[in-house]
Amino acid sequence: MKRKIGGVTIECIQGDIADQSDIEAIVNAANAELQTGGGVAGAIHRRAGRRLARECRRFAPIQVGEAVITGAYNLPNKYVIHCLGPVYGKDTPSDKLLADCYRNVLKIADKKEVESIGFPAISTGAFGYPMEDAAQVAFGLIKEEAPKLKNIKKIRFVLFDESARRIHEKVLEDMT
């Protein structure tokens, strides 16, 4: 599914965030120390290799809502933008902090003249953010920021399973 918001094409697919060869930058739903772990961070770090972990050490720790950019190494992308999403029910206000993640990632990507970016569903795994609520925050922020973006032309949400993809598609459809 694709929708256009403020000159930016938004799409939702089911797939592996570490296997998006036609996307310039991918987003890592990172931990504060920017190290490998489970889920998205584990998949990205395993595929990128040890040099990514070495570069990440320079930026760690990061705060909730913050984002940093690194090279992508063995990934098929140019950059990885790492952001720390909120733990739902612990980091408050969760919606503002999650929106900060998306805002900061988009700012960094646009400044680096990135034209295409791939997002996972930030904070919805181990951090427990309800999928539909997280999608509403993400698409709401993108709708607000899209008209201001100078370089980003495509934003892809790469969702782990069919249920997440369907939820994101429904929220996107209802919002546009």
Briefly say what this structure is:
By secondary structure, this protein is of the alpha/beta class. It has five helices and seven strands.
Report on this model:
The chain has 176 residues and is an alpha/beta fold. The chain has one domain (2-175): Leucine Aminopeptidase, subunit E, domain 1. 37% of the residues lie in helices and 20% in strands. It has five helices and seven strands; from the N terminus they run βββααββαβαβα. The protein has helices at residues 39-48, 50-57, 94-111, 131-145, 162-175, and strands spanning 2-5, 8-14, 25-29, 67-71, 79-83, 116-119, 154-159. A seven-stranded mixed sheet has the order 1-2-7-6-3-5-4, with helices on both faces. Strand 6 (116-119), helix 4 and strand 7 (154-159) form a beta-alpha-beta unit. Helix 3 (94-111) packs across helix 4 (131-145) and helix 4 (131-145) crosses helix 5 (162-175). The longest helix has 18 residues, at 94-111. It is globular. The two termini are 12 Å apart. The mean pLDDT is 96.
Helix content: 25-40%
* DSSP summary: helix tally: 5
Mean pLDDT across the residues is 96
CATH architecture annotation name? 3-Layer(aba) Sandwich
User: Using only CA atoms, what is the Rg?
Assistant: 14 Å
> What is the domain total for the residues?
1
**CATH homolog superfamily:** Leucine Aminopeptidase, subunit E, domain 1
Structural class: alpha/beta
Q: Pick out the low-confidence regions.
A: none
Taking the alpha carbons of the first and last residues, their distance comes to 12 Å
Strand line-up in the sheet with most strands:
1-2-7-6-3-5-4
- Residues in β-strands, percent: 15-25%
* CATH class placement: Alpha Beta
Number of strands: 7
The third-level CATH topology is Leucine Aminopeptidase, subunit E, domain 1
Overall 3D shape: globular
Largest sheet: 7 strands, mixed
Give the SSE order as H and E letters.
EEEHHEEHEHEH
